[in-house]
TrEMBL record:
PANTHER family: OS08G0248700 PROTEIN, OS09G0431300 PROTEIN. Residues 9-62, 63-113 form the Myb-like domain. It is found in: Nucleus. Residues 170-195, 219-230 have a biased composition (Polar residues). Keywords: DNA-binding, Nucleus, Repeat, Transcription, Transcription regulation. Residues 9-62, 63-117 form the HTH myb-type domain. Residues 196-210 have a biased composition (Low complexity). This is Transcription factor RAX3. PROSITE patterns: HTH_MYB (PS51294), MYB_LIKE (PS50090). GO terms for molecular function: DNA binding. GO terms for cellular component: nucleus. It comes from the Eukaryota. It comes from Aegilops tauschii subsp. strangulata.
Amino acid sequence: MGRAPCCDKATVKRGPWSPEEDAMLKAYIEERGTGNNWIALPHKIGLKRCGKSCRLRWLNYLRPNIKHGDFTPEEDSTICKLYISIGSRWSIIAAQLPGRTDNDVKNYWNTKLKKRLLGGRRKDRGAGTQQHRQGELDGANDGGEQQPLSASAMERIQLCMQLQEMQNPLSSISNHNNPLHLWQPSSHHQVAATHSNNSNNNSNSSRSSSFDVTVAAEQGQSSSLNDQNLGGQQQMETTATMDGLASPSSAGNSNIVTIEAELQELLYSATTTTTDSVVTQQGGVDWWSYEQGRSPVNCWDFTPETSSVLQDYTSVVYDM
DNA sequence: AACACAATCAACCGCAAGAAC
DNA sequence: TGTTCTTGCGGTTGATTGTGT
């Protein structure tokens, strides 16, 4: 027995929004607000649209202060930093970029940033069309005299992405998109994974760090994960579990463990050498330290290692 | 000029979480 | 306490636009 659809697809209009529809939605919300009920909103306005569609249209396009157009180098840098650290948590990443939406950031990463970063490094992967496409990217990237990412930087990004790709057939083990999720064994996540045994590969079970991007963007300020956004209990739980990382073997898959070990080595070795710096850390990068009173984003005292990744990244992207 | 292919991005989908009842 | 409803999220799709041949 499936879940009831949120609206009647036979009677609801789909596809691109017309200027008239945009105007109606915008005028109504600006005058009366959403009424905290997106489902009822289209009926009130007289739009033949699904409530979810209205919400998406408002958040991604009609909302005030939405920024369209090219991303700045600073924004690129922020996206890259956050992706390397927390993975595809687009709403969180977007919240750090006033005026940008998660959809925008996601599209931008998938269509541009990712290719800029990895385009020239994956010749041995795939076949057929994929290889053909990659070859074109390789050509684009290898042709110039651009400075490559340092091995460490590239490796980290690639491993993160590789790990993400491998998560797909293993959703029952880890269906969280955070590349580092495998050794992020909070009970919260374990429970979530259990609940999603029947979910498809795309599901994202963890909402432990969700927060109100809409409010943040509408306020025109950077948001953070704080006690309001992350329940106190969850926060303590996360902090506690991060004190003792689970054994990688708990993931139960040798392939995952192999990559995990590589990542562990990269991230948690006492001394990490890059082409740019030697980094000594106490226990490695504390990716998920949700300390009391500090948001995981705001507490982003980027390590020198991360900075080196970014320096590499920036030089590659903007020297092109 | 016509076609094929690639890139982009708005919109959709399905899921989980949490609120409401 | 269990069920239903709504919201928010990330992944994916597909129409449109751009580019190369």
